[in-house]
């Protein structure tokens, strides 16, 4: 695996080191998890912004709502009473 140097301030390094010690992981592993968590957070923020923009358009929001309602009707397609697929 390739590696690179990344500069962080002292407080970030101390926090990273403490998290690594508490978790028993390397500082690199903790940093990778933190980056993935931040990446996912940004995706959700972008999705929230997109839905907020969609809600500002009443016609578009009505179409979105109707489409979700149509799809919701298919959630139990071909499932038995216990929610299992047919054998």
Which regions are unreliable across 5 or more consecutive residues at pLDDT < 50?
none
Shape: elongated
Structural class: mainly alpha
Alpha carbon gap, first and last residue: 45 Å
Output mean pLDDT.
91
Helix and strand pattern? HHH
- Indicate the proportion of strand residues: under 5%
**Radius of gyration based on Cα positions:** 22 Å
Please bin the fraction of helical residues: 55-70%
Largest sheet: none
Put simply, the count of helices is: 3
**Strand element count:** 0
Structural account:
- This protein is an all-alpha fold.
- The protein is 67% helix and 0% strand.
- It has three helices and no strands.
- It has helices at 10-23, 27-55, 58-72.
- α1 crosses α2.
Helices and strands in order, then pairings?
Blueprint: H1 10-23, H2 27-55, H3 58-72
Helix pairs in contact: 1-2
Question: What attributes characterize this protein structure?
Answer:
mainly alpha, elongated, 67% helix
Describe the structure concisely for a colleague.
The protein is an all-alpha fold and about 90 residues long. Helices cover about 65% and strands about 0% of the residues.
């Amino acid at each position: 695996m390739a590696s690179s140097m990344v500069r962080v301030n002292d407080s970030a390094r101390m926090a990273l080191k403490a998290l690594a010690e508490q978790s028993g992981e390397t500082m690199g592993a903790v940093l990778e998890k933190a980056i993935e968590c931040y990446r996912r957070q940004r995706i959700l923020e972008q999705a929230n912004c997109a839905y907020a923009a969609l809600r500002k358009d009443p016609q578009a929001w009505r179409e979105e709502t109707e489409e979700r309602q149509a799809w919701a009707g298919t959630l139990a397609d071909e499932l038995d009473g216990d929610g299992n697929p047919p054998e």
